[in-house]
Amino acid sequence: MTVLPTLHKRRHALADGRAQRTRLDQVPLERSFPAALAGAGLWPLRPTGIETLQVNLGKRCNQTCRHCHVDAGPDRTEVMPTAVLDACLEVLAAHDIPTLDITGGAPELHPEFRRLVTAARALGRHVIDRCNLTITRLPNYRYLPAFLADQGVEIIASLPCYQEGNTDAQRGDGVFEDSIAALRELNALGYGRPGSGLVLNLVTNPLGPVLPPAQEKAEPEWRAQLAKNYGVVFNRLLNLTNMPISRFLESLDDEGRTAAYLAKLERAFNPAAAAQVMCRSLLSVGWDGRLYDCDFNQQLELPVASRVPRTIFEFEAAALAGREIAVAPHCFGCTAGAGSSCGGALHG
Ligand code: SF4
Ligand code: SF4
Question: How many CB atoms lie within 10 A of CB 210?
Fold first, then answer.
């Protein structure tokens, strides 16, 4: 039976995005993020285009993970209204944006999740579902694996570790067992199997304030462990750095490690990763229709620059594609080491 973890009760000191930004701005660093970008010839940071519309359907989730950068959980009430969802579909229909990336919370909890997916697929768009896996084990959502396979949706699934203890420590008791059951069901439908066209990527992140291991080392290890122990296969492993925001920032603050962690990220600045941060090719839509450069900025309430359209209802492709991306110290989380912008490792 699926256990809904209640690991973390939201606290209020850093629940507000502006308070988090203020907290991060207080940390003394060798150089600011704009200075690091300037050193790499990337300041001001601008998009290379809008390849992906990332839509955050809301903050409701069946889990309450320790490191959640969205501060999601079953008690959250933010859900994208129909008018906003329709505006996203109108933008997709009217513009050559190849990919719709659906995120949350657990986006599948949105009552119109199926309508959004089928409408975007009917428009010929590639659709990504950022799935926590356990949602597919809940009675009302057992339809999901077959539905996603039928629609040809790419799944990016979060799994902190291939070991049960580590995953449950971060996500809650029983999460690993349910995640493996979900992965097996997806594999049975063809996900992660060569030639099926059904892409199943796994996303992992370190348990603490350290940089993730090199992707070329981690991926074969994960592949071998999941195949040997559980018969599970997948396409790619994406190694993400923990962003110093939301619940992870709270835990850093609790342990007195915020400054050290931010300094570690700053020292690991990689110009090649900076050139390919996801905000350069993605536009993020909040549950209420506001526009952001990425999901992290969304959580920090850092909107797109004031000189460009700021809601999906005012979408204007040329102005947004030419915008100056809003950056702040947390951005060092995307440019540290091999890079961590939901796209996999980069070296340089
Ligand atoms: S990390 Fe993902 S699965 Fe966990 S609470 Fe946040 S949105 Fe839900
Ligand atoms: S946090 Fe967002 S704005 Fe900053 S570099 Fe990463 S993707 Fe870009």
Answer: 11
Q: Is 105 in the pocket of ligand 1 (CB under 6 A)?
A: yes
Atom 1 (ligand 1): residue with closest C-alpha? 68
Tell me the pLDDT tens digit for each residue of 4-16.
333 344 444 567 8
Q: Read off φ and ψ for residue 73, nearest 5 degrees.
A: 175, 175
Whose C-alpha lies nearest to ligand 2, atom 7? 279
Where do the domains of the chain lie, and which CATH numbers do they carry? 17-335 (3.20.20)
Contact 327 CB / ligand 2 (< 6 Å): yes
DSSP result, 132-174: -SGGGGSGGGTTHHHHHHHHT-EEEEE-S-SSHHHHHHHH-TT
Tell me whether the omega of the peptide bond preceding residue 244 falls within 30 degrees of 0, making it cis: no
Read off the pTM.
0.93
Q: Note the ligand closest to the C-alpha atom of 105.
A: 1
Residue-wise pLDDT tens digits, 79-129: 999 999 999 999 999 999 999 999 999 999 999 999 999 999 999 999 999
Phi, psi of 129, deg, nearest 5 = -115, 120
Nearest atom in ligand 2 to 280's CA = 8
